[in-house]
Write a structure and sequence with these properties.
Layout (H helix, E strand, L loop, with lengths): L2 H22 L6 E10 L5 E5 L2 E7 L10 E7 L2 E5 L1
Parallel strand pairs: 3-5
Antiparallel strand pairs: 1-2, 1-4, 2-3, 4-5
Length: 84
């Protein structure tokens, strides 16, 4: 594996861990991530994709979006929300 590929892989892993870290972090300080809309799961939760990982979240909007449209994934301790 060349250096550029290794750096890209490390960067992607760090971004993935940033979502997980925000989820277990402070309830008062959230982080925003630019994600892609994937639809809804069987339980009615919104699903979004960020760096190849699919996350479930609560949809704050009263409407849906189209597949792969950019949305904001807001993550704080124990909660994930999607907004357009």
């Amino acid at each position: 594996m060349d250096l550029v590929s290794r750096l890209n892989e490390t960067s992607n892993l760090n971004r993935l861990s940033a979502v997980d870290a925000a989820y277990v972090g402070s309830p008062y300080q959230g982080s925003n991530f630019k994600a892609k809309w994937q639809g809804y799961d069987a339980d009615g939760n919104a699903t979004v994709k960020y760096n190849g990982q699919v996350y479930t979240a609560r949809n704050l909007s009263s409407r849906s979006s189209v597949l792969n449209k950019s949305v904001i994934l807001r993550v704080s301790k124990g909660s994930r929300f999607v907004n357009y």
